[in-house]
Amino acid sequence: QVHLVESGGGLVQSGGSLRLSCAASGIAFSRFKMGWYRQTPGKQRELVAAITNGGDTNYVDSVKGRFTISRDNAKNTVYLQMNSLKPEDTAVYLCNADYWPHTHWGQGTRVTVSS
Q1: Minimal CB count within 10 Å: which of 10, 26, 43, 102?
Q2: Nearest Cα to Cα of residue 81 among 52, 105, 57
Q3: Could you tell me where the beta strands, DSSP code E, fall in the chain?
Q4: What distance in Å separates the CA atoms of residue 31 and residue 89, rounded to the nearest whole number?
Q5: Rounded to whole angstroms, what are the CA distances from 9 to 32, 54, 112?
Q6: pLDDT single digits (tens) 26-68
Q7: Is residue 51 within 8 Å of 71, Cβ to Cβ?
Q8: By the 8 A CB rule, do 93 and 45 touch?
Q9: Other Cβ atoms within 10 Å of 9 Cβ, number
Q10: Which residues are 25's β-sheet partners?
Q11: CA dihedral angle for residue 43, residue 51, residue 1, residue 111, rounded to 10 degrees
């Protein structure tokens, strides 16, 4: 059974930092492209950052230079380091594991950035 378990969310002031983690089990982690998405009420789920099995990364423009995605295949874990957080980063952040035709989601971790 596949499990993606996110952690590290919380309440932080504007300009602060958080590090999200997503621990995966039940998949051949190193084969999967891993991504962080975020969801806010009334908006479509947005891809924030992704990292391929080869380590290539991409980011949505709004977080470039502030967020960094990384992975540790030995620990089956993907991370999202979030710096210089802004109130508009407030959302539920979800971990995704994708290796066609399989895609898996975590339950999400809430990030709230106060102004």
Answers
A1: 43
A2: 57
A3: 3-7, 10-13, 18-25, 33-39, 46-51, 57-59, 67-72, 77-82, 91-99, 102-105, 109-114
A4: 29
A5: 23, 27, 8
A6: 999 999 999 999 999 999 999 999 999 999 999 999 999 999 9
A7: yes
A8: no
A9: 19
A10: 3
A11: -40
